[in-house]
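Pipeline run #58 for the internal structure catalog. This entry was flagged by the ingest filter as a single-chain record with no existing model, so it goes straight to prediction. Upstream metadata was stripped on purpose; only the residue string is passed forward. Reviewer on rotation: M.T. Logging verbosity set to normal.
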Amino acid sequence: MAAVKELLRIEADGTLSFGDYTLASKTKLEDFEYQGDLYKVKTFSEITKLEKNGMFLYESVPGTAVENLRVTEDTLSFTVSGNSDAQFTVELEADTEYTVYIDDVNAGKMKTNLSGKLSVSTALNENAGVQVKIVRV
């Protein structure tokens, strides 16, 4: 898995990829239009953050690369990579239960808080991505 050198891009299958954990200093890309929405990414070795229309969508500490982000009514899925273990937070529906899968293994059910945030920690290594799938119960 490699960092997304364009910072934010649309893949051939219509999904989004973003983040470059190899950068030494914070870099951002704003006003990236995708399916009628505006996206903003801030990324570097310490943090990666994605916003949609000014609202929080994804954040990781330390920085990560996310590929093939797909959001449907009931599912959020993507592949995440980085050069060390990371914690990522995503915004979903508030006060709702989700099942989290890491590399197709059920990691358990989690409930979002009142602001809709759900945080997950995962082991990462620079040579391989981890598949994440979060499904509303």
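catalog note: Residues 79 and 131 are 4 Å apart (CA to CA).
catalog note: The chain has a mean pLDDT of 95.
status: ready for reviewer M.T.
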